[in-house]
Fold:
Amino acid sequence: MMIGGGAGGHHHGPGGHGGFRGNVDGLPFAGVPSELRERFDQLVAEEPEFPLDDRARFPAVVPPEQRPAFTLRRFVAPYRRALAGGLALVVVETATGLVGPVLTQVAIDEGIGRGDVGLLVVAAAGYLLAVAANVAAGAARIAFTGRVGERLLFDLRVRVFTHLQRLSLEWFTDERVGRVMTRMTSDIDALAALFHDGLVNLVVQALTVVVVSVVLFSYDVTLAMVTLAVVVPTMTAATLWFRSRSDRGYGEVRRRLADVLADLQESLAGIRLVAAHNRQDHNVERHRRILARYRDANVYTATVGAWYAPGTELVATLGQAVLLVVGGQRVLRGQLSVGELTAFLLFLATFFAPIQQLVHLYTTYQSGQAAAAKLRELLATEPGVPQRPGAVELPPIDGEIRLEGVGFAYRSDTPVLHDVDLAIRPGETFALVGPTGSGKSTIAKLVTRFYDPTAGRVLIDGHDVRDVTLDSLRRQIGVVPQEPFLFAGSVRDNIAFARPEVDDDELEKACAALGLDGLIGALPQGIDTPVHERGSSLSSGQRQLLALARAFVARPRVLVLDEATSSLDLRSEAMVERALDAVLNGRTAILIAHRLSTAMRADRIAVVDAGRIVEVGSHDQLVAAGGRYAALYATWSGATALPEAPVSG
Structure:
């Protein structure tokens, strides 16, 4: 089971790290002020519960139904019955919207023309009923398709989030967080607009155009031909121009928006460093330039739309004027009645309105298509550490770890490890030391299978880690990083992160074993005390102790500690090392250490240099050998030795 990630700063102050306090190293504690307690309790009581569904399992392998490339057609296919119901409402809405011109013709020719007041009243009443039916059908269609659209978006958000969980660390290392957030926010919001307003309205307007075209020909073929000769070619040319320009424009808008969010996220994450180095002006200017490119992309699409929309309105107005002249002449010749000409012009307005509406819908459609293309690219990304088909469950392990001829490169032209052979015995505490960039952390990442070796293999109890399921592997391997990540929630939530079902008795025993019981007992709400996001109100030592407690409760058979004490002061380091004694007991442990005081706790030590294991042995053996480790130890001993007191004269 993976235990946390890295985040958060270090808060050291003159008060030291005397446990969890109301004020931690000068920072306000993450509790609730007394004056807000009543309102806070009320909000908590009103908060809805969202219990986890035991049937919802995380698929480490992409399900077969999600393997084809993501397209809107494939995505909506499982909802075709619901969409068919929406289409039926669309047909009713379209039909009732076309009754008005027919009744107008009857009222003029048969009612007014013949002086039949009764028929005129019936036509007017029928018109009102048609309008009411059209409104009712439209409301039902909007409500129905809205529910279907929300179900679609819910499934899409879950699918994208699940895929993000499936991707390996390599992808997140190369991809900016802001771009990832864009996929889950603005891109899905663009599809939301398409599902809610675009697709169904597109069908409504397209169906209206088809039906009205048939009706126009049924009224008068000559006028219908004039309509097609004057309006359709011009509209078609304008639409093709708009499509080519908007395709390019909206793709650029999506890319520039991703840049905006990426820069925003990076600036906020590094706000402390920005303030420390007085780089606010630089950041504002950089963000201004990025926003300018986003603005220019939006101005381009707006300009294209500004030319297209009025242009189509001009074509529609000119078309109506031409048809009024031609139709009026046919009325004067007795070839067409006044009512038929009136109905034709009303239908013509009904013909032009959907075309103009399609312009706006096409904008929504293009934005949705650009978002779908970005999501398709994301969902097509294969995990860098895939679970092999037919992978087996890793049985309970003793903790023997072997690396055989392992080589690795983050990029093909820059090898990091070269032909590494290593054997770690079950229950052994094994330390990796060496200069920065030598490959220590890379070895740990291969053992936890955050990456796969480019050569050789990694074995746990004789099982190649690539042949076992990721779930069964991660359940038995724990990681405590240098800067542990704490989630917004309670202290209990963070300690029980790997095993949410753990009972309070076991948590109390774990805290007592690690020496945390006194610290937690001093909290205003005990173990249920809230913690700020990333644990920003806690000191480095307190966050590290919580991370060790989390690892202890997870009960992994193999534990990897990545420089878990390198960022702590001496007092915090002493507290953490006392807790380490309990955590490491009976487990195979890999310690990645910069401080030799940490490495000296290990049963054996391996010295890593330039991606190779150059020495292996116990502390005493390596010092006696007089090699690389002995030189490191001599340097460290000299740096940590107390200066001699001056001789009084």
In short: The chain has a mean pLDDT of 77. The chain is about 60% helix and 10% strand.
